[in-house]
Amino acid sequence: MNNYKLLTPGPLTTTETVKQEMLKDRCTWDDDYKNVTQSIRKQLLELAQVKESDYTAVLMQGSGSFVVESVLTTVVGEGDKILIITNGAYGERIGEMAKVLKLQHTVYSVPYNEQPSPLEVKALLENDSTITHVAVVHCETTTGTLNPIAEIGSAVKELNKTFIVDAMSSFGGVPMDVSALGIDYLISSANKCIQGVPGFGFVIARIEELEKCKGRARSVALDLYNQWEVMKLDGKWRFTSPTHVVAAFAKALEELAEEGGIHARSERYANNNHILRSRLKALGFNAYISEELQSPIITTFLFPYEGFSFEHFYSAMKKAGFVIYPGKLTDVDTFRIGNIGDIHEDDMTTLCKVIENYMVVMNNEG
Ligand SMILES: *Cc1c(COP(=O)(O)O)cnc(C)c1O
To answer: Are residues 162 and 311 in the same domain?
Structure first.
């Protein structure tokens, strides 16, 4: 297999040093390992800018979706009802989970190229007092849209509802003051902006809220409350923990701090994204969403001309050392390029040069 850089928003390109951490086997119940877990939990709270007296970090085995499902099954109780906001496939996945878990729910859905309206959220909450929880995706990775969670959060808090945010592809890459945003449960995973490898996710939970959730989950393995109860004592995971992945994640957190924290990382990502968007635009690749909605994480591009073959483009990029992402839209032909991970300005300029050359060849042939 050739080496290539992943321009996919998780799993993403990680550093050699993060990968090297996985060469050792670690014992799940030994203090050394449990201390690694405790230190990760503490650092996550710092990144979320929250106090240890108000919030707790709970790690959960599985990919990001497992952790979203874990929150839903643990916090939305029998008599509760959740409002799910969607403008992309990840929001819709929350809706799918609510359906399968048989949660009482209602969906506020807007087109993929628009942001949900905080005023509309407020109106929906005012018109249905049975709603107890609200869930929204921060960066909709389907399109790259950054949703207005601050404004939505203030509507949710004004009406005293529990606020759940899927910040999977943004946490660590975009500064977030979790308590100021009114977030009760923030969900993210190891293999996104913190630049670890896949295998677990985490929840930054308001303690006062999580404390109410004992016995609510309709799942044993995904019971976030029980996971917290065990983990908070001394860092022990219930069931087998992904030891290699956890060790790699601890290293990734160290490297995030060395880079200068979330602010520095978000600037690198924004710069990557700016180079990508502007240079591709000059080549005739238009982004699916307008610049004001664009996150610094991933960009969805429309096919540049009729007859454009994604498969052909994909293999040319792969040959040049970059793996890109297919689109996830049903009505228009798109593809996606992520710019998070251990990806720097020189990677972006190399990629843009490769695409420029591709277009020259295609123009000559076409
Ligand atoms: C990556 C991602 C997820 C989780 O996807 P998994 O494939 O389960 O890791 C959920 N929500 C968003 C917004 C994501 O970007």
So the answer is: no
Q: Report the CATH number at residue 270.
A: 3.90.1150.10
Express each pLDDT in 120-162 by its tens digit.
999 999 999 999 999 999 999 999 999 999 999 999 999 999 9
Distance (Å, whole) CA 249 – CA 167? 17
- Ligand 1: atom nearest CA of 138 is 13
Q: Ligand 1 in contact with 141 (CB < 6 A)?
A: yes
Determine contact, residues 13/251, Cβ cutoff 8 Å: no
**Tens of pLDDT along 239-273?**
999 999 999 999 999 999 999 999 999 999 999 99
In angstroms, what is the span from residue 341 Cα to ligand 1's centroid? 15
190 and 284 assigned to the same domain = no
Domain carrying residue 127: 17-257
